What we know:
The chain is mainly α. The chain is built from twelve helices and five strands.
Amino acid sequence: MVRMxxxxxVTATALLCGCQTVETTKGGxxxxxxxxxxxxxAEEVNAGALKAYAQMMAEAKKKGILxxxxxxxxxxxxxxxxxxxxxxxxxxxAAKWPWEVHVITLDQVNxxxxxxxxxxxxxxxxxxxxxxxxxxxxxxGHEIAHALREHARERISRQMGTQAxxxxxxxxxxxxxxxxxxxxxxxxxxxxxxxxxxxETESDRIGVExxxxxxxxxxxxxxxxxxxxxxxxGSQPPKWLSTHPPHQDRINDLRAYSEKVMPLYAxxxxxxxxxx
Length: 276
Ligand SMILES: [Zn+2]
């Protein structure tokens, strides 16, 4: 009887949301291995991301705020290239993703990665936090983890499941006219809506592993968060904190997991030294 109830329950859930259970990533050393329910295809979400990203970068270019400082752009590109190269440890198909990063001249403390690996970091994050390479790697590793885990797709799936309307703020960088399309929804989810604590924890853990594998001290994630918290005391709290809500256990979790991946960092560093 109990079993029958269970089967009925599962079937009902599947029918209700038209869901597909997927494993987006392998667990890695940090052991993130949760199964996810998706009601929308990766193809649809990725197509939306490409469209939103192209439009936002075109808008940024028009406003003269795209990649203005060549030295800063190169620094960010070098860091993200090293992180992206390690993403195959979690999912081999990421090697074929159309990864791209741009530096936006805006005073906001912000960075994000859309589905399919379309990234941006704002000058405000680098300058206001006086971010080290390790701290930039911590932010971007965390963002890349959201993309690898397809958290945006999962969040959109959940919204579809509850029939919740997705409002489009769209004031920033001209995403407004993307309207209620999938591109607008992807942009809204990536740029404006807060991540759940579960998604944040997964990205924190995968992020420190990506950083360590890429040869960045994973403990920089801790100093990054300390700087974020400090910046959050001011009159204009970091935009990044509104989409990545802090929680009490975060620093402890980051400390524990950055220690756990220290051997990967040591191996990456000795590998780099041997290669010289
Ligand atoms: Zn996050």
